Structures are given as C-alpha cells and as structure tokens.
C-alpha cells in the first residue's frame, strides 16, 4: 500500500503483529532496504510437523465420529462414504487459519502469549465456520430421504470432532512446535542450530543447519510471498475503481448465467447412475431404452384388504376403479391383467355360481386349472381372500416429469376409489423423490440460510456485514444450482446432499474475509479490504486448494455418486473462493459505514505503529 511522505523523510512502516509482514524501510529514493521471505525455508520456523499433525487431526476426527455413530447403531449408507474427503479438506482449512495466525505473532514472545494471540485471532473465525457447517448438516437431517439423513449425521458429527481436535490436539501440537522454535531447534533432528549464517561452509549448510531468523522490525516471521502478493498486488488491484466496475459486471454475468441455469435444472435420477460404470445393469437399461422405450413400469394395483368379491355390487365398484385407472393417459388398457375378469369370464362360460361366498371361493380351483399363474395374484386361506392384485402396463413414461405425473395420477385415482387400493412398483421408490425433492431442497436452503444469518449476527460484530455473508450463501447456492444444469447434473437425492454441503461451505470463505474486514484497524474501506485480503487471502486460497485436492480423487471414480460429489464440491469451492476473494471485498467497500465507526479503527487486541 503506497504511503505519501514529504521529500527527504525516512519512513519505517512496521506492520502490526496481525500481519506477519516483512519490514519495509524506504529512503528518500524509495528503495527497499529490508525485508524478505527467508523464513519460508527456515529449518527452525518451518511448519512441517504442524502440517502433518493437522492432517492427522482430521483423520482422528473422522475415526472418532464414525466410531461413535457406528457404536450407537446409526445406519451407514454409501453416501456417507463421501464424508472423509470433505472432513479432510475442512480440517486442513482450519489448520491453515491457525498456522497463519501463529505466524503473525511475535517470535520472541513466550509460547503462552503466542498461543493466546493465535486463539484470539483464529478461534472466532474457525468457530463461525464450524457452527455454520454443523448447523447446515444437522438441518439436513430433517429431510425425508434416509440416505441424506445418514450423510448429514455422519458429516455434521465429524465436523464437531474436527473442531474439538483442532482446538485441543492440534493446538497442543502447535504449542510443542512453538517450544521447539523457542529453543531454536532443527525441525527434523531437534538439535539446537545457529542463527548466524557461515559463508565458509556453503549455501547448503546455511539452508539446512542455520535457522530461526525473523523480521526484527516487526518481531514476526518473515512474510510469505503469497501474503506479499495479496498486500502489494492483488488487494490494491481489486479495490481499483476500474476493477470494481469490472467485478460488478462480472458478478451480474455470473448471476444471470446462474439464474438461467436454475430454470434449466432437471429433476430425477437415472437408475444407471446407481451402479458402477462397468456394471451389467447399465447395459440392461441401455437395451431397455433401445427396444422398449415406449413401455414404462408394469404397475401393480393391489387390494390390500379382505372384501366380499362374491358381492356383485362390490365387483362392479372394483371394476369401475380398475377402468378409471386404465383410462389414465399413462396406461394402455389393452395390456392389463385381471384375475377377476378372467374368473368372471370362465364362470359365465361354465355357468358357475360365484355370487355367494362358498361357491366363489370353492370354484377358484377352476380358475387355477385354466390359468395356473393366477394364484400368484390371489392370497386366500379357507374361505377368506386377504389380498389380491391386478397389473397395469404404463406407456410413454420417458422423462422425470412423466414419472412424477404418473405417480401422482395413479395414486390420486386409487385414493378416489370406494374400494381400498394401492398402486405400486419397485421403481416408485425413485419416483417418490420427485414429489418432495424441490420442496425439501428449498426448505433446507431457507432454514439453513436463516441459521447462518443468526450465527453471523451473533459472532460478526456488524449487522450489515452479517447480511453480506448471508448474501454470499444465497449467491453461491444459486450459482451451484444453475451451473449444475451446464454440467449435466440433475436435481436428485444425490445432488441434494451436495447442496446441503453448499450451504455450509459457501459461508466459510466469506465469513473469514468479512470478519477480518470489520476487525481491521484501517480507516478507509479500501484499506480495510486490502488488509482483510492480506491477512486471510492466502489461508483462504490454501483452504480452497486443499479441499479441491481432497475430493479430486473422486473425479476419477467409476461411480456417478462420487463424480457428482466432486462436481458440486468443485463448484462450491470455486464460487465460494470467488466470493470471498473478489466479490465480497469489493461489495464491502461500497458501504463506508460497515465498521463500528468508519473514521476510527475498530477496537482490537492488535496494535499498529506508523513512525
């Protein structure tokens, strides 16, 4: 950030302890005299152990949560197998935040003070994102799909354990690592090393056996090159007036494309997608579409109760109900099968009396002799028919909308009958989701978004910025839903799971940046945006990349479920990071009253010195 100064004045800009920044000393000619990123390869200050145990912390959270739920007898379904990849990405994201905050503390402070500063900076941000993620998944338990319920229970509980392990187990590792740094010990050999370079021993010796150097002006570790990039290049570029205009136009294009995509999203799940790519089931459905596409499922019309079939009035009522169903636009009445019609035809031909109970039941054996397969359609013992069924052949059921309309139409006709009827086919378990998938998706999104708003209002010290976080949630959800259509992903129970994920993840990046923005000490809105990007831009990038890497292996899976999980997670992370790093910082600068007082810095535990 450029700072104007009178000619001939020597300016030393010491970044606050929250900024892990390199010291910058500018003379009259503007030349940079100090600073650097030497600490990034420092054999003492490197964070190899912290990174390794951060990943281990996520693994322990997965084992603990899954073990507890399995011990409690919670059903485990295949969709819950996606959770470990997700938890790994989230846990590593929180680890990056904590490590970044640790690096911003003063190296010469005691471990106790450095841990206090780290938790003061990171705990609120991590708590906000964890609460929103956990709430998003636990709200998803209210859905009517058992597969989604199982996924949400396992993932939400794993988030709770991940949070606990990060603040306890990983915090302890960070403290132990801090004690090693305090005594200036090598990260691998744990032997005390020199802080002074020895040119006579060569560069290899200095790189491997000399460490512990830090920025003596700020007292913090040297600035990471990525942090410098966000402070000196990306932040100022984003808040430039012309860039803001471009960002607004880019967002309008994004929003327009997303809304258009939302109108093109298809509902329904292809049964092929429930099998592995190499399964014979896929070839079966391909042949079925090729040779029997005009025929739909052969639906059973079941009479589940005992009724007096020998009563002619009851038979007429039952026949009227069957004909009513046969007249459906999705039924070919010429392909129906009715054991009762066959029985009545045989009885009339043979002059059999079927108008009383004993003769009706007694003469059923004649039907079995003429049509030996009819007994499959009648369940009777002694003089009682406890249940029976008829078959209807459906036609022209080619789309998910046809399947939904067929289900609603047949169930409606069966419900209007005087005779108790049930229409059923094994495929109805998939058709059922079309009746509630859109309703459940909207319900979960609305409830979860409201919960996110409440948490943001409680934990982010500014109502307007809390609304911006909620706006980011809605915006990312619209974007992911819209771009699902462009990536050939239908709205079904599988993608609905990922939309639940979207609710939780869409808040993460925006919450980090918004909280950093409102807690910044900078007086102007542009400076606050740059400061927020400087402090948390790199951890956000790390978290986004680590999450995508965590689920990248799923893109090569031979199962549609896992590939869909990757596609939507990729969209969630891409759009979430774009909102956190581009859209939200720019939009926040449009409101000069976003802080408690735009003319005075917000109260903070940090200090800033400008000499």
UniProtKB/TrEMBL annotation:
It is found in: Membrane. The keyword Metal-binding does not apply. Residues 40-176 form the SSD domain. It comes from the Eukaryota. Keywords: Glycoprotein, Membrane, Transmembrane, Transmembrane helix. PROSITE patterns: SSD (PS50156). Pfam families: Patched. Belongs to the patched family. PANTHER family: PATCHED DOMAIN-CONTAINING PROTEIN 3 (PTHR10796:SF60), PATCHED-RELATED (PTHR10796). This is Patched domain-containing protein 3-like.
């Amino acid at each position: 950030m450029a700072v104007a100064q009178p000619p001939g004045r020597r300016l030393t800009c010491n970044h606050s302890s929250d900024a892990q920044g390199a010291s910058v000393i500018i003379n009259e000619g503007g030349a940079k005299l100090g600073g650097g990123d030497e600490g990034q390869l420092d054999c003492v200050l490197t964070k190899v152990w912290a990174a390794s145990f951060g990943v281990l912390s996520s693994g322990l959270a997965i084992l603990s949560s899954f073990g507890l739920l399995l011990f409690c007898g919670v059903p485990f379904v295949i969709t819950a197998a996606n959770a470990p990849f997700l938890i790994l990405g989230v846990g590593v994201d929180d680890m990056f935040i904590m490590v970044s905050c640790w690096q911003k503390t003063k190296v010469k402070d005691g471990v106790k003070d450095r841990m206090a500063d780290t938790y003061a900076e990171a705990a609120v941000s991590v708590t906000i994102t964890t609460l929103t993620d956990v709430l998003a998944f636990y709200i998803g338990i209210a859905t009517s799909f058992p597969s989604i319920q199982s996924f949400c229970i396992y993932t939400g509980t794993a988030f709770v354990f991940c949070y606990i392990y990060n603040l306890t187990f990983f915090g302890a590792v960070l403290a132990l690592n801090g004690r090693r740094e305090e005594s200036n010990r090598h990260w691998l050999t744990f032997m005390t090393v020199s802080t002074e370079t020895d040119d006579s021993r060569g560069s290899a010796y200095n790189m491997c056996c000399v460490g512990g150097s830090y920025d003596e002006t700020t007292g913090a570790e040297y600035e990471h090159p990525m942090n410098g990039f966000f402070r000196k290049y990306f932040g100022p570029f984003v808040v430039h007036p012309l860039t803001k205009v471009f960002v607004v136009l880019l967002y309008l294009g994004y929003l327009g494309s997303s809304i258009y995509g939302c109108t093109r999203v298809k509902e329904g799940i292809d049964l092929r997608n429930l099998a592995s790519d190499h399964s014979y089931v896929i070839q079966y459905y391909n042949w079925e579409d090729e040779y029997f596409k005009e025929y739909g499922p052969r639906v059973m019309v079941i009479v589940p109760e005992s009724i007096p079939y020998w009563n002619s009035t009851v038979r007429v009522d039952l026949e009227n109900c069957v004909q009513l169903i046969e007249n459906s636009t999705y039924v070919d009445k010429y392909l129906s099968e009715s054991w009762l019609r066959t029985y009545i035809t045989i009885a009339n031909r043979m002059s059999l009396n079927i108008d009383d109970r004993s003769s009706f039941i007694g003469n059923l054996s004649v039907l079995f002799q003429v049509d030996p397969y009819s007994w499959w359609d009648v369940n009777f013992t002694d003089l009682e028919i406890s249940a029976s069924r008829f078959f209807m052949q459906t036609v022209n059921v080619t789309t998910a909308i046809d399947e939904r309309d067929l289900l609603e139409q047949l169930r409606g006709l069966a419900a209007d009958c005087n005779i108790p009827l049930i229409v059923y086919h094994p495929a109805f378990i998939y058709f059922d989701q079309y009746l509630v998938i859109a309703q459940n998706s909207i319900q979960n999104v609305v409830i979860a978004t409201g919960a996110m708003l409440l948490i943001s209002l409680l934990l982010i010290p500014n109502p307007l910025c809390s609304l911006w976080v909620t706006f980011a949630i809605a915006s990312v959800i619209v974007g992911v839903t819209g771009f699902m259509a462009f990536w050939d992903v239908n709205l079904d129970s599988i993608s609905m799971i990922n939309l639940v994920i979207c609710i939780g993840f869409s808040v993460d990046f925006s919450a980090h940046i918004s909280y950093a923005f409102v807690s910044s000490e900078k007086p102007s809105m542009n400076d606050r945006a740059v400061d927020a990007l400087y402090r948390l831009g790199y951890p956000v990038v790390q978290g986004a990349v680590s999450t995508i890497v965590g689920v990248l292996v799923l893109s090569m899976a031979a199962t549609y479920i896992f590939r869909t999980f990757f596609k939507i997670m990729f969209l969630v992370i891409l759009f979430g990071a774009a909102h956190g790093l581009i859209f939200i910082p720019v939009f926040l600068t449009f409101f000069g009253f976003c802080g408690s007082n735009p003319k005075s810095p917000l109260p903070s535990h940090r200090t800033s010195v400008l000499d």
